[in-house]
TrEMBL record:
<feature type="binding site">
    <location>
        <position position="12"/>
    </location>
    <ligand>
        <name>substrate</name>
    </ligand>
</feature>
<dbReference type="InterPro" id="IPR011060">
    <property type="entry name" value="RibuloseP-bd_barrel"/>
</dbReference>
<dbReference type="InterPro" id="IPR047596">
    <property type="entry name" value="OMPdecase_bac"/>
</dbReference>
<dbReference type="GO" id="GO:0006207">
    <property type="term" value="P:'de novo' pyrimidine nucleobase biosynthetic process"/>
</dbReference>
<dbReference type="InterPro" id="IPR014732">
    <property type="entry name" value="OMPdecase"/>
</dbReference>
<comment type="function">
    <text>Catalyzes the decarboxylation of orotidine 5'-monophosphate (OMP) to uridine 5'-monophosphate (UMP).</text>
</comment>
<dbReference type="GO" id="GO:0005829">
    <property type="term" value="C:cytosol"/>
</dbReference>
<comment type="similarity">
    <text>Belongs to the OMP decarboxylase family. Type 1 subfamily.</text>
</comment>
<dbReference type="InterPro" id="IPR001754">
    <property type="entry name" value="OMPdeCOase_dom"/>
</dbReference>
<feature type="domain" description="Orotidine 5'-phosphate decarboxylase">
    <location>
        <begin position="6"/>
        <end position="225"/>
    </location>
</feature>
<dbReference type="GO" id="GO:0044205">
    <property type="term" value="P:'de novo' UMP biosynthetic process"/>
</dbReference>
<feature type="binding site">
    <location>
        <position position="210"/>
    </location>
    <ligand>
        <name>substrate</name>
    </ligand>
</feature>
<feature type="active site" description="Proton donor">
    <location>
        <position position="63"/>
    </location>
</feature>
<keyword id="KW-0665">Pyrimidine biosynthesis</keyword>
<comment type="subunit">
    <text>Homodimer.</text>
</comment>
<dbReference type="GO" id="GO:0004590">
    <property type="term" value="F:orotidine-5'-phosphate decarboxylase activity"/>
</dbReference>
<feature type="binding site">
    <location>
        <position position="209"/>
    </location>
    <ligand>
        <name>substrate</name>
    </ligand>
</feature>
Length: 231
């Protein structure tokens, strides 16, 4: 197990300089970062190019949910930036996901991940939008749809990993958000778990956010995450 290949630090900041400062502070402790809509909107694609130029891998969390042609265009733009992963909404259906997968074929190192159910959502939230099944049932349904569309993996909560691994098999990527150290705060996530538990259940990657990025010493906090994975 190499935590540097499995831990993704979320750069959930509203400006480039603050994100850059964290990358500098973590140095060689981290090689994989998530860039979401907030940072991409604030700092633009040049920040992504900068991370890639520094030898970092980038998980571009766009959560694409548009007509297939627009999704394909966004995926090609992401591939041109040199990112390793990009997300689409599985609730957009097979057409959107298949368009993303097809657009990624020109970029051999680009992986398309389908977001199943957002980790802040509960059964009650699903009911609000007319979904009567539980979050676990909906996650598995959407994951199967993503697999049929050719997606390389899914985004899900730590609590979904075991069932997903059994459904998707050993080769699929399962990237989990909503992780925190034991006793830590899950923040906005309704279905959290620890990094160690997520990986033990079969996750390929775990995304850590404020557990590291809001710590007084982010590098020390990331080392705690790493240590928790190898004990």
């Amino acid at each position: 197990m190499d935590p540097n290949n499995e831990i993704i630090v979320a750069l959930d900041y509203g400006n480039g300089p603050t994100a850059e400062d964290l990358v500098d502070r973590l140095g060689d402790e981290c090689r994989f970062y998530k860039v979401g809509l907030e940072l991409l909107t604030a700092a633009g694609p040049d920040f992504v190019r900068h991370l890639v130029s520094r030898g970092k891998e980038v998980f571009l969390d766009l959560k694409l949910f548009e007509i297939p042609n627009s999704v394909a265009g966004a995926v090609r733009a992401a591939g041109a930036l040199g990112v390793s992963m990009v997300t689409v909404h599985s609730m957009g259906g097979t057409g959107i996901m298949a368009a993303a997968v097809d657009a990624a074929r020109d970029f051999p190192d680009l992986r398309i991940l389908a977001l199943t159910v957002v980790t802040s959502m509960t059964d009650e939230d699903l009911a609000d939008i007319g979904v009567s099944d539980s979050t676990e049932e909906q996650v598995l349904r959407l994951a199967r749809l993503a697999g049929k569309a050719g997606c390389h993996g899914v985004i899900a909560s730590p609590q979904d990993v075991s069932a997903l691994r059994g459904t998707l098999g050993s080769n699929a990527l399962i990237v989990t958000c909503g992780v925190a150290l034991p006793g830590g705060t899950p923040f906005d996530h309704a279905r959290p778990g620890t990094p160690r538990a997520a990986l033990a259940a079969g996750a390929s990657h775990v995304v850590v956010g404020r557990t590291v990025t809001r710590a007084q010493d982010p590098a020390a906090a990331l080392r705690l995450v790493h240590a928790g994975l190898v004990v």
